[in-house]
Specification:
Two copies of one chain form a homodimer.
Chain A lengths: L2 H17 L6 H8 L3 H8 L2 H20 L29 H10 L6 H16 L7 H22 L5 H23 L5 H19 L2
Helix pairs in contact in A: 1-2, 1-4, 1-6, 4-6, 5-7, 5-9, 6-8, 7-8, 8-9
Chain lengths: 210, 210
Protein backbone atom coordinates (compact mmCIF):
# COMPACT_ATOMS: atom_id res chain seq x y z
CA UNK A 1 0.00 0.00 0.00
CA UNK A 2 1.36 3.45 -0.88
CA UNK A 3 1.88 5.98 1.90
CA UNK A 4 -0.89 8.13 0.52
CA UNK A 5 -3.43 5.33 0.34
CA UNK A 6 -2.51 4.45 3.90
CA UNK A 7 -2.81 8.10 5.00
CA UNK A 8 -6.28 8.35 3.45
CA UNK A 9 -7.50 5.13 5.07
CA UNK A 10 -6.00 6.08 8.43
CA UNK A 11 -7.85 9.39 8.12
CA UNK A 12 -11.07 7.62 7.14
CA UNK A 13 -10.92 5.39 10.25
CA UNK A 14 -10.30 8.44 12.42
CA UNK A 15 -13.13 10.50 10.91
CA UNK A 16 -15.58 7.59 11.11
CA UNK A 17 -14.63 6.95 14.75
CA UNK A 18 -15.11 10.63 15.55
CA UNK A 19 -18.20 11.56 13.54
CA UNK A 20 -19.72 8.35 12.24
CA UNK A 21 -20.16 7.18 8.65
CA UNK A 22 -22.79 9.81 7.96
CA UNK A 23 -20.35 12.46 9.20
CA UNK A 24 -17.67 11.40 6.71
CA UNK A 25 -17.35 14.06 4.04
CA UNK A 26 -14.72 13.50 1.39
CA UNK A 27 -13.45 17.09 1.74
CA UNK A 28 -12.90 16.61 5.49
CA UNK A 29 -11.24 13.27 4.91
CA UNK A 30 -8.87 14.82 2.36
CA UNK A 31 -8.00 17.57 4.84
CA UNK A 32 -7.45 15.00 7.60
CA UNK A 33 -5.14 12.99 5.33
CA UNK A 34 -3.40 16.07 3.95
CA UNK A 35 -4.24 15.28 0.33
CA UNK A 36 -6.57 16.70 -2.31
CA UNK A 37 -10.12 15.40 -2.74
CA UNK A 38 -9.13 14.48 -6.31
CA UNK A 39 -6.50 12.13 -4.94
CA UNK A 40 -9.05 10.51 -2.63
CA UNK A 41 -11.31 9.88 -5.62
CA UNK A 42 -8.38 8.71 -7.73
CA UNK A 43 -7.53 6.01 -5.21
CA UNK A 44 -11.00 4.97 -4.06
CA UNK A 45 -13.33 6.02 -6.87
CA UNK A 46 -16.28 7.12 -4.76
CA UNK A 47 -17.65 7.27 -1.24
CA UNK A 48 -18.75 3.60 -1.16
CA UNK A 49 -15.23 2.72 -2.36
CA UNK A 50 -13.74 4.66 0.55
CA UNK A 51 -16.00 2.89 3.03
CA UNK A 52 -15.25 -0.56 1.63
CA UNK A 53 -11.51 -0.04 1.74
CA UNK A 54 -11.72 1.57 5.18
CA UNK A 55 -13.51 -1.53 6.44
CA UNK A 56 -10.77 -3.85 5.14
CA UNK A 57 -8.10 -1.52 6.53
CA UNK A 58 -9.75 -1.49 9.96
CA UNK A 59 -10.05 -5.29 9.92
CA UNK A 60 -6.35 -5.59 9.11
CA UNK A 61 -5.41 -3.21 11.91
CA UNK A 62 -7.46 -5.31 14.35
CA UNK A 63 -5.59 -8.39 13.12
CA UNK A 64 -2.37 -6.66 13.98
CA UNK A 65 -3.16 -5.73 17.56
CA UNK A 66 -4.88 -9.03 18.33
CA UNK A 67 -2.04 -11.01 16.83
CA UNK A 68 -4.44 -12.66 14.38
CA UNK A 69 -3.47 -13.66 10.89
CA UNK A 70 0.01 -14.72 11.92
CA UNK A 71 -0.67 -18.32 11.06
CA UNK A 72 -2.31 -18.04 7.69
CA UNK A 73 -5.88 -17.46 8.90
CA UNK A 74 -6.78 -13.80 9.21
CA UNK A 75 -8.90 -11.69 6.95
CA UNK A 76 -6.84 -12.55 3.91
CA UNK A 77 -7.16 -9.02 2.66
CA UNK A 78 -3.64 -9.14 1.35
CA UNK A 79 -3.33 -5.39 1.61
CA UNK A 80 0.11 -5.56 3.14
CA UNK A 81 -1.09 -4.07 6.42
CA UNK A 82 0.34 -6.89 8.45
CA UNK A 83 3.85 -5.63 8.25
CA UNK A 84 5.00 -6.73 11.66
CA UNK A 85 4.89 -3.26 13.15
CA UNK A 86 2.59 -2.43 15.98
CA UNK A 87 2.62 -5.84 17.60
CA UNK A 88 4.29 -4.69 20.75
CA UNK A 89 2.31 -7.28 22.68
CA UNK A 90 3.65 -10.22 24.63
CA UNK A 91 4.97 -12.96 22.37
CA UNK A 92 2.41 -15.16 20.68
CA UNK A 93 1.56 -18.00 23.09
CA UNK A 94 1.99 -21.55 21.83
CA UNK A 95 -0.82 -22.98 23.97
CA UNK A 96 -3.91 -22.94 21.69
CA UNK A 97 -6.30 -22.06 24.50
CA UNK A 98 -4.23 -19.03 25.48
CA UNK A 99 -3.94 -18.07 21.84
CA UNK A 100 -7.72 -18.21 21.46
CA UNK A 101 -8.20 -16.06 24.56
CA UNK A 102 -5.58 -13.58 23.46
CA UNK A 103 -7.05 -13.14 19.99
CA UNK A 104 -10.46 -12.32 21.42
CA UNK A 105 -9.52 -10.42 24.59
CA UNK A 106 -7.08 -8.09 22.83
CA UNK A 107 -10.09 -6.51 21.13
CA UNK A 108 -10.64 -4.85 24.52
CA UNK A 109 -7.68 -2.61 25.29
CA UNK A 110 -7.72 0.88 26.70
CA UNK A 111 -5.47 2.26 23.97
CA UNK A 112 -6.48 5.11 21.65
CA UNK A 113 -5.71 3.02 18.54
CA UNK A 114 -7.88 0.12 19.71
CA UNK A 115 -10.73 2.38 20.80
CA UNK A 116 -10.65 4.25 17.51
CA UNK A 117 -10.47 1.08 15.47
CA UNK A 118 -13.29 -0.63 17.38
CA UNK A 119 -15.44 2.48 17.24
CA UNK A 120 -15.00 2.74 13.48
CA UNK A 121 -15.68 -0.99 12.99
CA UNK A 122 -18.82 -0.88 15.13
CA UNK A 123 -20.02 2.20 13.29
CA UNK A 124 -19.46 0.62 9.85
CA UNK A 125 -21.25 -2.51 11.02
CA UNK A 126 -24.19 -0.52 12.41
CA UNK A 127 -24.29 1.56 9.24
CA UNK A 128 -24.50 -1.56 7.07
CA UNK A 129 -28.07 -1.99 8.32
CA UNK A 130 -28.85 1.10 6.23
CA UNK A 131 -26.31 0.66 3.44
CA UNK A 132 -26.40 -2.58 1.44
CA UNK A 133 -23.24 -1.53 -0.43
CA UNK A 134 -21.15 -2.41 2.62
CA UNK A 135 -22.57 -5.87 3.04
CA UNK A 136 -20.29 -7.88 0.76
CA UNK A 137 -17.21 -6.43 2.39
CA UNK A 138 -18.60 -6.99 5.88
CA UNK A 139 -19.70 -10.51 4.99
CA UNK A 140 -16.23 -11.51 3.84
CA UNK A 141 -14.45 -9.76 6.73
CA UNK A 142 -16.92 -11.37 9.15
CA UNK A 143 -16.52 -14.83 7.60
CA UNK A 144 -12.71 -14.54 7.78
CA UNK A 145 -12.93 -13.55 11.43
CA UNK A 146 -15.24 -16.46 12.28
CA UNK A 147 -12.87 -18.82 10.41
CA UNK A 148 -9.92 -17.43 12.38
CA UNK A 149 -11.64 -17.99 15.74
CA UNK A 150 -12.95 -21.39 14.60
CA UNK A 151 -9.38 -22.36 13.69
CA UNK A 152 -8.21 -21.61 17.22
CA UNK A 153 -11.21 -23.41 18.73
CA UNK A 154 -10.53 -26.49 16.59
CA UNK A 155 -6.98 -26.59 17.92
CA UNK A 156 -8.29 -26.39 21.48
CA UNK A 157 -11.02 -28.98 20.88
CA UNK A 158 -9.74 -31.23 18.06
CA UNK A 159 -12.51 -33.82 18.48
CA UNK A 160 -15.38 -31.34 18.12
CA UNK A 161 -17.40 -31.47 14.87
CA UNK A 162 -16.77 -28.62 12.40
CA UNK A 163 -20.33 -27.36 12.53
CA UNK A 164 -20.30 -27.01 16.30
CA UNK A 165 -16.93 -25.27 16.19
CA UNK A 166 -18.12 -22.76 13.60
CA UNK A 167 -21.32 -22.06 15.56
CA UNK A 168 -19.27 -21.43 18.72
CA UNK A 169 -17.03 -19.04 16.76
CA UNK A 170 -20.08 -17.21 15.40
CA UNK A 171 -21.42 -16.80 18.93
CA UNK A 172 -18.11 -15.64 20.40
CA UNK A 173 -17.58 -13.02 17.69
CA UNK A 174 -21.18 -11.77 17.88
CA UNK A 175 -20.92 -11.58 21.67
CA UNK A 176 -17.66 -9.68 21.35
CA UNK A 177 -19.33 -7.13 19.07
CA UNK A 178 -22.26 -6.75 21.44
CA UNK A 179 -19.92 -6.24 24.40
CA UNK A 180 -17.75 -3.87 22.39
CA UNK A 181 -20.58 -1.42 21.75
CA UNK A 182 -21.42 -1.41 25.48
CA UNK A 183 -17.76 -0.84 26.36
CA UNK A 184 -17.26 1.95 23.84
CA UNK A 185 -20.39 3.78 24.92
CA UNK A 186 -19.23 3.70 28.54
CA UNK A 187 -21.87 1.27 29.77
CA UNK A 188 -19.53 -1.61 30.54
CA UNK A 189 -16.09 -1.28 32.18
CA UNK A 190 -13.22 -2.79 30.20
CA UNK A 191 -12.36 -5.42 32.79
CA UNK A 192 -15.96 -6.49 33.13
CA UNK A 193 -16.28 -6.91 29.35
CA UNK A 194 -13.12 -9.01 29.31
CA UNK A 195 -14.34 -11.11 32.22
CA UNK A 196 -17.66 -11.85 30.50
CA UNK A 197 -15.90 -12.79 27.28
CA UNK A 198 -13.35 -14.97 29.08
CA UNK A 199 -16.17 -16.82 30.79
CA UNK A 200 -17.95 -17.34 27.47
CA UNK A 201 -14.80 -18.81 25.99
CA UNK A 202 -14.68 -21.23 28.93
CA UNK A 203 -18.36 -22.08 28.47
CA UNK A 204 -18.01 -22.71 24.73
CA UNK A 205 -14.81 -24.72 25.09
CA UNK A 206 -16.42 -26.78 27.84
CA UNK A 207 -19.38 -27.43 25.60
CA UNK A 208 -17.22 -28.51 22.67
CA UNK A 209 -15.25 -30.83 24.95
CA UNK A 210 -11.53 -30.51 25.37
CA UNK B 1 -49.56 8.59 27.13
CA UNK B 2 -51.58 10.91 24.92
CA UNK B 3 -52.28 9.97 21.32
CA UNK B 4 -50.08 12.76 20.09
CA UNK B 5 -47.10 11.82 22.24
CA UNK B 6 -47.52 8.28 21.02
CA UNK B 7 -47.75 9.43 17.39
CA UNK B 8 -44.56 11.46 17.75
CA UNK B 9 -42.62 8.59 19.35
CA UNK B 10 -43.94 6.10 16.78
CA UNK B 11 -42.78 8.50 14.09
CA UNK B 12 -39.38 8.90 15.78
CA UNK B 13 -38.83 5.13 15.84
CA UNK B 14 -39.79 4.91 12.16
CA UNK B 15 -37.53 7.78 11.08
CA UNK B 16 -34.59 6.46 13.12
CA UNK B 17 -35.06 2.97 11.65
CA UNK B 18 -35.17 4.43 8.15
CA UNK B 19 -32.51 7.13 8.24
CA UNK B 20 -30.56 6.71 11.47
CA UNK B 21 -30.26 9.06 14.43
CA UNK B 22 -28.24 11.56 12.44
CA UNK B 23 -30.97 11.56 9.79
CA UNK B 24 -33.64 12.51 12.32
CA UNK B 25 -34.70 16.10 11.70
CA UNK B 26 -37.43 17.47 13.91
CA UNK B 27 -39.28 18.94 10.91
CA UNK B 28 -39.37 15.52 9.22
CA UNK B 29 -40.46 13.86 12.44
CA UNK B 30 -43.28 16.37 12.84
CA UNK B 31 -44.40 15.70 9.27
CA UNK B 32 -44.22 11.93 9.84
CA UNK B 33 -46.33 12.25 12.99
CA UNK B 34 -48.74 14.76 11.43
CA UNK B 35 -48.12 17.44 14.06
CA UNK B 36 -46.33 20.79 14.20
CA UNK B 37 -42.67 21.08 15.15
CA UNK B 38 -43.80 23.31 18.03
CA UNK B 39 -45.82 20.42 19.43
CA UNK B 40 -42.82 18.09 19.19
CA UNK B 41 -40.78 20.59 21.21
CA UNK B 42 -43.64 21.14 23.64
CA UNK B 43 -43.75 17.44 24.47
CA UNK B 44 -40.05 16.55 24.35
CA UNK B 45 -38.24 19.86 24.88
CA UNK B 46 -35.32 19.27 22.51
CA UNK B 47 -33.66 16.72 20.25
CA UNK B 48 -31.95 14.83 23.10
CA UNK B 49 -35.34 14.69 24.83
CA UNK B 50 -36.87 13.12 21.72
CA UNK B 51 -34.09 10.53 21.54
CA UNK B 52 -34.35 9.64 25.22
CA UNK B 53 -38.09 9.17 25.08
CA UNK B 54 -37.84 7.28 21.78
CA UNK B 55 -35.41 4.89 23.42
CA UNK B 56 -37.81 4.18 26.30
CA UNK B 57 -40.72 3.85 23.86
CA UNK B 58 -38.77 1.35 21.71
CA UNK B 59 -37.81 -0.65 24.80
CA UNK B 60 -41.44 -0.82 25.87
CA UNK B 61 -42.53 -1.96 22.41
CA UNK B 62 -39.93 -4.75 22.55
CA UNK B 63 -41.30 -5.77 25.95
CA UNK B 64 -44.69 -6.07 24.34
CA UNK B 65 -43.77 -8.36 21.45
CA UNK B 66 -41.43 -10.50 23.54
CA UNK B 67 -44.00 -10.87 26.29
CA UNK B 68 -41.61 -9.35 28.82
CA UNK B 69 -42.71 -7.25 31.72
CA UNK B 70 -45.85 -9.28 32.28
CA UNK B 71 -44.65 -10.49 35.65
CA UNK B 72 -43.37 -7.34 37.23
CA UNK B 73 -39.86 -7.41 35.75
CA UNK B 74 -39.58 -5.47 32.51
CA UNK B 75 -38.10 -2.08 31.89
CA UNK B 76 -40.24 -0.44 34.53
CA UNK B 77 -40.68 2.58 32.32
CA UNK B 78 -44.25 2.98 33.48
CA UNK B 79 -45.14 4.81 30.30
CA UNK B 80 -48.33 2.89 29.83
CA UNK B 81 -47.10 1.28 26.63
CA UNK B 82 -47.85 -2.20 27.83
CA UNK B 83 -51.54 -1.93 27.22
CA UNK B 84 -52.15 -5.53 26.33
CA UNK B 85 -52.49 -4.88 22.62
CA UNK B 86 -50.08 -6.34 20.15
CA UNK B 87 -49.35 -9.54 22.01
CA UNK B 88 -50.86 -11.75 19.38
CA UNK B 89 -48.31 -14.43 20.26
CA UNK B 90 -48.95 -17.83 21.72
CA UNK B 91 -49.99 -17.68 25.38
CA UNK B 92 -47.23 -17.07 27.90
CA UNK B 93 -45.70 -20.45 28.78
CA UNK B 94 -45.62 -21.45 32.41
CA UNK B 95 -42.40 -23.47 32.08
CA UNK B 96 -39.59 -21.05 33.06
CA UNK B 97 -37.13 -22.43 30.51
CA UNK B 98 -39.60 -21.93 27.67
CA UNK B 99 -40.41 -18.49 29.01
CA UNK B 100 -36.72 -17.57 28.98
CA UNK B 101 -36.33 -18.83 25.41
CA UNK B 102 -39.44 -17.04 24.25
CA UNK B 103 -38.41 -13.71 25.75
CA UNK B 104 -35.08 -13.80 23.93
CA UNK B 105 -36.04 -15.51 20.67
CA UNK B 106 -39.00 -13.24 20.00
CA UNK B 107 -36.50 -10.44 19.40
CA UNK B 108 -35.95 -12.21 16.07
CA UNK B 109 -39.16 -12.11 14.08
CA UNK B 110 -39.63 -11.34 10.43
CA UNK B 111 -42.31 -8.76 11.08
CA UNK B 112 -42.06 -5.12 9.99
CA UNK B 113 -42.72 -3.87 13.53
CA UNK B 114 -39.98 -6.03 15.03
CA UNK B 115 -37.48 -5.17 12.29
CA UNK B 116 -38.21 -1.48 12.65
CA UNK B 117 -38.00 -1.59 16.42
CA UNK B 118 -34.77 -3.59 16.47
CA UNK B 119 -33.22 -1.38 13.81
CA UNK B 120 -34.05 1.76 15.78
CA UNK B 121 -32.78 0.20 19.03
CA UNK B 122 -29.52 -0.90 17.43
CA UNK B 123 -29.06 2.51 15.86
CA UNK B 124 -29.65 4.34 19.15
CA UNK B 125 -27.24 1.98 20.87
CA UNK B 126 -24.58 2.48 18.19
CA UNK B 127 -25.16 6.22 18.29
CA UNK B 128 -24.60 6.31 22.05
CA UNK B 129 -20.90 5.70 21.37
CA UNK B 130 -20.90 9.25 19.96
CA UNK B 131 -23.55 10.82 22.15
CA UNK B 132 -23.09 10.69 25.93
CA UNK B 133 -26.55 12.22 26.42
CA UNK B 134 -28.13 8.88 25.61
CA UNK B 135 -26.08 6.87 28.06
CA UNK B 136 -28.17 7.24 31.21
CA UNK B 137 -31.30 6.16 29.38
CA UNK B 138 -29.50 3.24 27.72
CA UNK B 139 -27.88 2.22 30.99
CA UNK B 140 -31.20 1.99 32.79
CA UNK B 141 -32.98 0.28 29.89
CA UNK B 142 -30.07 -2.16 29.59
CA UNK B 143 -29.97 -2.86 33.32
CA UNK B 144 -33.70 -3.53 33.35
CA UNK B 145 -33.36 -5.91 30.42
CA UNK B 146 -30.50 -7.79 32.10
CA UNK B 147 -32.57 -8.00 35.30
CA UNK B 148 -35.52 -9.35 33.31
CA UNK B 149 -33.45 -12.10 31.70
CA UNK B 150 -31.66 -12.82 34.99
CA UNK B 151 -35.06 -13.23 36.65
CA UNK B 152 -36.04 -15.90 34.13
CA UNK B 153 -32.63 -17.60 34.46
CA UNK B 154 -32.96 -17.67 38.24
CA UNK B 155 -36.29 -19.42 37.89
CA UNK B 156 -34.70 -22.00 35.58
CA UNK B 157 -31.62 -22.45 37.80
CA UNK B 158 -32.76 -21.63 41.34
CA UNK B 159 -29.54 -22.90 42.96
CA UNK B 160 -27.19 -20.72 40.88
CA UNK B 161 -25.50 -17.78 42.66
CA UNK B 162 -26.84 -14.32 41.80
CA UNK B 163 -23.55 -13.09 40.35
CA UNK B 164 -23.31 -15.99 37.92
CA UNK B 165 -26.94 -15.54 36.88
CA UNK B 166 -26.44 -11.83 36.20
CA UNK B 167 -23.26 -12.47 34.21
CA UNK B 168 -25.08 -15.06 32.09
CA UNK B 169 -27.89 -12.56 31.48
CA UNK B 170 -25.35 -9.90 30.46
CA UNK B 171 -23.77 -12.30 28.00
CA UNK B 172 -27.08 -13.45 26.52
CA UNK B 173 -28.34 -9.89 25.98
CA UNK B 174 -25.00 -8.71 24.52
CA UNK B 175 -24.94 -11.75 22.22
CA UNK B 176 -28.49 -11.02 21.16
CA UNK B 177 -27.54 -7.47 20.22
CA UNK B 178 -24.50 -8.67 18.28
CA UNK B 179 -26.61 -11.21 16.39
CA UNK B 180 -29.35 -8.66 15.82
CA UNK B 181 -27.06 -6.28 13.92
CA UNK B 182 -25.91 -9.16 11.70
CA UNK B 183 -29.49 -10.23 11.08
CA UNK B 184 -30.72 -6.72 10.30
CA UNK B 185 -27.89 -6.04 7.88
CA UNK B 186 -28.69 -9.24 5.99
CA UNK B 187 -25.53 -11.11 7.02
CA UNK B 188 -27.25 -13.75 9.16
CA UNK B 189 -30.52 -15.51 8.27
CA UNK B 190 -33.24 -15.24 10.89
CA UNK B 191 -33.38 -18.96 11.64
CA UNK B 192 -29.64 -19.17 11.99
CA UNK B 193 -29.60 -16.26 14.45
CA UNK B 194 -32.32 -17.95 16.49
CA UNK B 195 -30.48 -21.26 16.42
CA UNK B 196 -27.26 -19.68 17.70
CA UNK B 197 -29.11 -17.89 20.46
CA UNK B 198 -31.07 -21.01 21.45
CA UNK B 199 -27.81 -22.92 21.73
CA UNK B 200 -26.28 -20.19 23.89
CA UNK B 201 -29.25 -20.35 26.22
CA UNK B 202 -28.67 -24.11 26.52
CA UNK B 203 -24.96 -23.54 27.13
CA UNK B 204 -25.53 -20.91 29.82
CA UNK B 205 -28.28 -22.87 31.56
CA UNK B 206 -26.07 -25.97 31.49
CA UNK B 207 -23.26 -23.98 33.06
CA UNK B 208 -25.47 -22.56 35.81
CA UNK B 209 -26.79 -26.04 36.57
CA UNK B 210 -30.46 -26.88 36.40
Amino acid sequence: MTDRRRAILTGAARVIARRGVRGLRVADLAAEAGVSTALVYYHFKDRPGILRHALAFIGDRADRYTGAGEDGHGTGGGTGERDGTGDGEAPRPSDPRRLLERTLLLEFQDLPEVRENSTAWGELRAHSVFDPELRDELASAGAAWVAEVAGHLAEVCPAAPDGAVTAAAERLTALLEGLSVRWLSGLLPLEHARGLLRESIAVEVGRLGL
